[in-house]
Design goal:
The chain has 296 residues and is of the alpha/beta class. 23% of the residues lie in helices and 34% in strands.
Length: 296
C-alpha cells in the first residue's frame, strides 16, 4: 500500500499586489504551473496586463504521481483563491521532459503519439497527449503529461476551458516576445529545480530548444558547451541570458562566467506590468510562470 501520509507542501514565496481585489476575479487570469515536486501560481489583470500575485510551493516527500495529486488537493482545499471558479481565464502549464516541437506545416493531429515516440516512451495508463500551437513561431509543441492531474484540474473549473500548455511553450512565448530579441543569435538558459532549459533564437525566430537534467554543477557548462559547439558560437563574445534559480555572485553564476564572456541576467516579460510590491523579487526569477499569461 502506498504511503503518502508524510507528503505535504511548503510555501516558499508569496507576493501580492495591494490592488488585488477578490471581487474582480472575473477580470483576472489564473496561471498555474505544476512540476514533479513544485507548484506555482500567478494572477494577472487582463485589463492592463498587470501581475497581481505570485506564489511558489515545494511539494515535500512526494515520491509518486498519486502522492502529488493528494498533496495538491490538500493545497487547493486550503487556499483562499484556487477553488474559485469565476476567473476570466485559466491556464495550466506542465513541467515535462516528454515533448516534441513540430513545424506547423508538417503537423498532423493524429500523429502526436508518433512525434513523441521519437524522443520518449509514453505510459498510456497515466499519461495523456497534449498540443500547443505557437502562432508566432509556426511550431506545434506536442507533449505528454499526467492525465489524471489534468482531468482533476478540469473538474475543479467545470465552466471554464482550461488551456493546457507545456513549460517550454511558456518559455518560447516569453523569449520570442521579449525585448532582447535582435538580429544576432542569443542563447537563453533557464535554471529550474534540477533542470536547465536552453534556447537559441535570432530576430524573433526559434532555432533551438531542449532541456537537460542537472545532477551536479559541471553539468550546466557541459550542456551549454554542447549547444555552443552545435551552433559554432564564440565563448568570449556570445550573449547568454540567464533566468531562474540562480543568484548574482553565486557559485553557479561564477561557474557560467568562467566559461562564458557575455553572461547577463534576464528581465521580466516585457509585455507585463509590475508594481512596487514585486521589488523584492529579482527580475530574472519566475520567467516561466509569468510567461504562461503570454500563451494565447
Amino acid at each position: 500500500m502506498e504511503a503518502i501520509h508524510s507528503a505535504t507542501y511548503k510555501l516558499v514565496k508569496r507576493i501580492k499586489d495591494s490592488n488585488f481585489d477578490v471581487d474582480q476575479l472575473h477580470h483576472y487570469c489564473l496561471s498555474m504551473q505544476i512540476g514533479i515536486r513544485d507548484f506555482q501560481m500567478s494572477v494577472t489583470d487582463t485589463r492592463n496586463d498587470t501581475c497581481l500575485m505570485v506564489e511558489d510551493y515545494i511539494l515535500q516527500d512526494v515520491k509518486t504521481i498519486n502522492a502529488r495529486l493528494q498533496v495538491l488537493a490538500k493545497l487547493f482545499e486550503n487556499h483562499h483563491l484556487l477553488m474559485a471558479g469565476f476567473w476570466d481565464s485559466i491556464k495550466l502549464s506542465l513541467k515535462s521532459h516528454k515533448f516534441s516541437l513540430v513545424p506547423a506545416s508538417h503537423f498532423v493531429e493524429d500523429s502526436v503519439r508518433d512525434y513523441l515516440l521519437l524522443n520518449c516512451t509514453i505510459n498510456d495508463a497515466v499519461e495523456g497527449e497534449y498540443t500547443y500551437k505557437h502562432s508566432s513561431s509556426n511550431v506545434v509543441n506536442a507533449f505528454a503529461g499526467d492525465k489524471r492531474l489534468v482531468n482533476w484540474i478540469n473538474s475543479l473549473y467545470p465552466n471554464k476551458e482550461i488551456e493546457v500548455i507545456h513549460q517550454g511553450s511558456a518559455l518560447i512565448e516569453g523569449i520570442l516576445k521579449h525585448n532582447t530579441q535582435s538580429d544576432e543569435k542569443i542563447v537563453y538558459c533557464i535554471l529550474d529545480r534540477g533542470i536547465m532549459h536552453i534556447f537559441v533564437s535570432e530576430n524573433h525566430k526559434l532555432h533551438y530548444y531542449n532541456q537537460f537534467s542537472i545532477k551536479e554543477a559541471k553539468d550546466y557548462v557541459k550542456y551549454l558547451m554542447m549547444v555552443f559547439k552545435e551552433f559554432n558560437l564564440n565563448q568570449r563574445t556570445q550573449k547568454v541570458i540567464l533566468w531562474g534559480n540562480i543568484s548574482q555572485g553565486s557559485d553557479h553564476h561564477k561557474l557560467f562566467s568562467k566559461y562564458i564572456g557575455g553572461i547577463a541576467f534576464g528581465k521580466r516579460p516585457s509585455n507585463l506590468k509590475f508594481n512596487y510590491h514585486f521589488d523584492e523579487l529579482s527580475d530574472h526569477q519566475y520567467f516561466d510562470l509569468l510567461s504562461i499569461y503570454l500563451c494565447d
